[in-house]
Design a protein that fits this description.
alpha/beta; 13% strand; 445 residues; single chain; five-stranded parallel beta sheet; globular; 16 helices
């Protein structure tokens, strides 16, 4: 097949490489000339995606993948076009379709008969049918369901492990017609491989949900569930701490029963998905009070965590505080909706002098975010807040932050016994247990 992939970002490029690895002819489209040039040289434009560099180099060398900035080179006569352009959402849950509208307009201008168009960007329910279908028909002069087929098939992968996730999880599709869904099923079966999953009620593979709306809601539901679950865990943690209860022991005990799946509390919920997609859901369903409450709870956790520091340490005015971790989660070089921003703001609002450290970022990169970088073991500090659960921090000790008196572990990964003379407080643990050092690290989120 001839396949076009629009937007060669952290999801789109691995998808293009995956399609090419199955022997199809793939052209990727991106507005960033530098990305296009790097892809055409066989060099990954962003680090950290497992197997991307070697698979990309192989695809380019084999001639099955190339990139361009021109839709006219990729879209005409394509058997399938997969679009993974970012959708942005503001704090009031209003989606900003600007980039997607521009990409869809360009796609429509070059669309030819016989093409399957699949949107993989997470969308509010009804967007595929009510926004993209008329836009594509008007721009192309073609009729959906007759001249081309339009489906929604959400990406369900995490950056860093895209290729593994593509195999692990069922590929969800929803069409505007039975014929469109059938074409989409055939397409994805030809470009993906699936692991055997005995835990699933039906075989792993391409699952047709019956409509674009059902497929859109499935992606919103699975991510919103996680945000709500984490919000509940955070509320449990705050209450447990007030009552002198270790919430982690409670969660372990509760989850020993097969119908309980309580997630872990923490300083922040970040990334492109979990903080964003509940707001897309709320755009369609503003009466969803549970979703709104969970989002507010999770958004308030950085300020709550800084409040814990203030309660233990005392007045933060003029105190030097280091935030450990700019990334939104450990092991990932990505700051999308990271708790670092709210944590720094909360500290500065209390008069603290704030530094940020992250082993994955250079001082210059941190400065570009407006942060003052901290060098491990350099200047004295008064306190620290662990924001990202990088593995490196598990090995840190008092000498790495000279002069430190108070440390807030926002991810429950630190061993307090390594921090001589330091008061260590963990979200969801009573103060006396927070300083005992008798626990091990938590699960990444």
């Amino acid at each position: 097949m001839r396949i076009a992939v629009i937007a060669l970002g952290k999801i789109g490029l691995p998808l293009a490489v995956q399609f090419a690895s199955k022997g199809h002819s793939v052209i990727g489209v991106d507005i960033n000339q530098n990305v296009v040039e790097m892809v055409n040289r066989g060099h990954e434009p962003f680090p950290g995606e497992d197997l991307l560099q070697e698979n990309l180099a192989t695809a380019v060398a084999n001639g099955t993948l190339r990139a361009t900035t021109e839709y006219g080179e990729a879209v005409p006569q394509a058997d399938a076009v997969v679009l993974v352009v970012p959708l942005f959402v503001d704090d009031d849950a209003r989606p900003d379709f600007g980039w997607m509208d521009a990409a869809t307009t360009e796609l429509a201008n070059h669309l030819t008969p016989g093409t399957l168009v699949s949107f993989e960007t997470t969308l509010p329910v009804g967007t595929t049918r009510n926004r993209w279908k008329p836009m594509l028909e008007q721009g192309s002069g073609l009729a959906e369901g007759k001249d081309f087929h339009l489906v929604f098939s959400p990406e369900r992968v995490l950056t860093g492990r895209v290729f593994a996730d593509l195999r692990k999880y069922p590929k969800l599709i929803g069409g505007l017609s039975e014929d469109g869904a059938r074409v989409a099923k055939d397409f994805y079966e030809a470009v993906l491989d699936f692991d055997d999953r005995e835990d699933l009620a039906r075989p792993n593979g391409v699952w047709d949900l019956g409509s674009t709306e059902a497929s859109e809601l499935a992606k919103l539901a699975e991510t919103t569930y996680r945000d709500v679950n984490i919000g509940l865990a955070n509320q449990f943690a705050r209450y447990a701490s007030e009552q002198g209860i270790d919430i982690y022991k409670v969660i372990e005990a509760s989850n020993s029963q097969p119908y309980s799946h309580i997630h872990r509390p923490g300083i922040a919920v970040g990334g492109h998905c979990i903080p964003v997609y509940p707001r897309l859901y709320l755009w369609n369903d503003p009466a969803a009070t549970i979703v709104r409450s969970a989002r507010e709870t999770n958004a308030g956790m950085p300020d709550y965590t800084v409040g814990l520091l203030e309660g233990v340490h005392g007045n933060l005015q003029g105190q030097v505080v280091v935030v450990l971790g700019a990334a939104y989660r450990g092991g990932v070089k990505e700051t999308a909706f990271s708790g670092v921003f709210s944590s720094v703001s909360a500290l500065e609002s209390r008069g603290a002098t704030v530094f940020v450290h992250d082993p994955m970022y250079s001082d210059e990169e941190l400065a570009n975010y407006g942060f003052t970088a901290y060098t491990q073991g350099s200047t004295p500090v008064d306190a620290a807040v662990l924001q990202a659960d990088h593995a490196d921090y598990k090995e840190w000790m008092s000498a790495d932050l000279p002069g430190i008196r108070t440390l807030i572990d926002g991810r429950s990964i630190l061993d307090a016994t390594r921090w001589d003379g330091v008061t260590v407080r963990t979200i969801g643990r009573p103060l006396d247990q927070s300083t005992s050092g008798d626990w091990t690290g938590g699960r990444e989120r």
